[in-house]
Amino acid sequence: MSSDIDPVPTGTEKRARARGEIDIDREILNDNITAAIAASERLHWAAKRKLQEQGLAPAASSGELTEDDLHQLAVGLVGWLGPVLKDVETRLAAIEANALRDGGVWDAKSQYRKGCVTTHGGNLWLAKQDNSNSRPPSDHWRLMNKTKAHL
User: Fold this and answer.
1) Is the domain covering 101-150 a CATH 3.30.70.100 domain?
2) I need a surface site. Which of 2, 57, 68, 76 has the fewest CB within 10 A?
3) Domain boundaries in the chain?
4) pLDDT digit string, tens, across residues 39-95
């Protein structure tokens, strides 16, 4: 099959072409893809140089990466990214621990964890601690929003 065959344009493309709004140019597309590949290669080599400077990757060789080079590069990346990822993991755990969770309409049979939000008596309540069968209002709950009917 020839690569010069254009795909069938969509209705939107046909209308846009008729109005002269777009002109699909394969050369521009190919140039953009080539530029993206070149940029990716530059980033790859820049990252490798950075890791080499930090002693986390093997020194430059003939340009061909061996299995050992790839292994050392992977170990270097893990060593370099490990502390960053650990910090992100710690921050994410803190965010999740304080996240609000939808508890739906309050039900005596349900168990509610700290941070759970529920409705009861037309009001919105936040669980201040884990609880079950503790009907709002109580020490386990904080009123978040009071409806006009209950003002």
Assistant:
1) no
2) 2
3) 11-96, 101-150
4) 788 888 888 888 878 777 666 555 677 788 778 888 887 787 888 888 888 988 888
